[in-house]
Design brief:
With 218 residues, the chain is of the alpha/beta class. 48% of the residues lie in helices and 13% in strands. The longest helix has 24 residues. It is globular. The structure holds adenosine-5'-diphosphate (ADP). The site of adenosine-5'-diphosphate has 17 residues, from helix 2 and helix 3. Adenosine-5'-diphosphate binds next to helix 2 and helix 3.
Length: 218
């Protein structure tokens, strides 16, 4: 099954996508993680990507589309994938659907994870992550077992440079203007399931599992 995770920063799409990956074994492809890996390089492209991200702006469509479609060309995605953070614009959605259609593939499920703005702001304010393996933690509710050390790979965890609350305002604005319209687009196609990301974790997980495991109930 080809799944898209849609929703504002901090709603919990990444956390749910990683959990789904472990359950259903489709690769979790997070556009932000692909960009953060590019940023680690010493190249003009890396500096360009860093500029957009640190301001909270979206990376331009042509660049973003190339990065993600190249990833979707890899053989591990052929039976299914969990795409997290892409598409974020109408142009990205069109490019993705056109490319998949060429290969007889299509998006089958869109998990739209939402939460009120105050919850997003509070979560982003306390989110920490691993720059090496991209595991996600929360300083208060889900800290690493050993202080500042990633449970998964042992690297030192950190706050993302774009998690500053001033930058978050720009990210939320970009989301509202460019990404929110995609909700209606996918809802009209009949493939969108809305998940309340502000519920306790086990209830969010149950909603995601119901949507991903039983597509015939949609
Ligand atoms: P979040 O979902 O918490 O906003 P991400 O890691 O998905 O975090 O994205 C971080 C940043 O990477 C975004 O603010 C943006 O600059 C860039 N980015 C990620 N995905 C896209 C995309 N599909 N189109 C444009 N920019 C993107």
């Amino acid at each position: 099954m080809n799944i898209i995770m849609l929703g504002p920063p901090g709603a919990g799409k990444g956390t749910q996508a990683k959990r789904l990956e472990a359950e259903i074994h489709y690769p979790h492809i997070a556009s932000g993680d692909l960009l953060r890996d590019i940023r680690k390089e010493d190249s003009p492209l890396a500096r360009q990507v860093q500029g957009y991200m640190d301001r909270g702006d979206y990376v331009p469509d042509d660049l973003m589309i190339k990065i993600v479609l190249d990833r979707l060309d890899q053989p591990d995605t052929q039976n299914g994938f969990i795409l997290d953070g892409f598409p974020r614009t109408a142009a990205q959605a069109e490019a993705l659907q056109a490319e998949l259609a060429k290969e007889g593939r299509q998006v089958e499920l869109v998990l739209y994870v939402t939460a009120p703005r105050d919850v997003l702001v509070q979560r982003i304010g306390s989110r920490i992550s691993c720059p090496n393996c991209h595991a996600i933690y929360n300083a208060y509710t889900k800290p690493p077992r050993v202080d500042s050390i990633c449970d998964v790979c042992g690297h030192i965890v950190e706050r993302r440079t774009d998690e500053d609350l001033n930058v978050l305002a720009t990210r939320l604005e970009a989301y509202a203007r460019q990404t929110q319209p995609l909700v209606d687009h996918f809802r009209e196609k009949g493939i969108l399931v809305q998940i309340d990301g502000s519920l306790p974790m086990d209830e969010v997980e149950a909603q995601v599992d119901a949507a991903a495991g039983m597509p015939e109930l949609r």
